[in-house]
Fold this protein.
Amino acid sequence: MTAHPAGMTYADYLQLPALLSAQQPLSDLHDEMLFIVIHQTKELWLKQMLHEVDLAVRLIESDEFAPAYKALARVSRIQSVMTLSWDVLATMTPVDYSRFRHVLGTSSGFQSAQFRELEYRFGIKDPRYLDYQEGGSEGRARLQAALDAPSLWDAADAARARAGAASWLEVYRDSDRWFALYQLAEKMVDIDDALAGWRHTHLLTVERIIGDKMGTGGSAGAKYLASTLTKRAFPELWSLRTEL
């Protein structure tokens, strides 16, 4: 089979008929389409970030830092795009959303298996989130695999140990000597910073649209989101700054 078969169209290659038929509003209200597109796009970007993090972990495990930087930089750029998407969703008013919110039933972004998988792959491994995926489902299997596998933090910390640096604080205090590790750490902080920004903007958007109502999936809504703002994937890389 050739890489570029004759007659392949743009729509064929991107499977546009399947992609563009995946938006199936359950109401006849105009704004439900935006809600679906925003969240489907988010899931596509999460898929790409997982693809990049998987590559970065494998590269770091082989001490191939430069190409790992590229993959991690791509992750943080995608995060910026995802954060900006909340601005688009915020064009939906509380009245707009309340008109179709009932059709969501108990579905919620809180149940996104890919988002939890990404947290696990970064190193935020809270096993409680396994319970939000059905037993035997692909989402639960992927989450369990991510929980069991070395995270980005695990891979980076193992690379530091292999190189002979006693701690990340040592890496930062002598950044010229440990420049490859120092750069790796800063790429990871970029990701953590962007994740915090995404969480904050998500919270503001939710507060703007539904206030303090409970989430559709049964979470505490804005209160739950506020409780996540201090989560860090790489807390050691933040705390060492106080000691520099």
Observations:
- The domain at 27-243 is CATH 1.20.58.480 (Methane Monooxygenase Hydroxylase; Chain G, domain 1).
- Residues 76 and 208 are 25 Å apart (CA to CA).
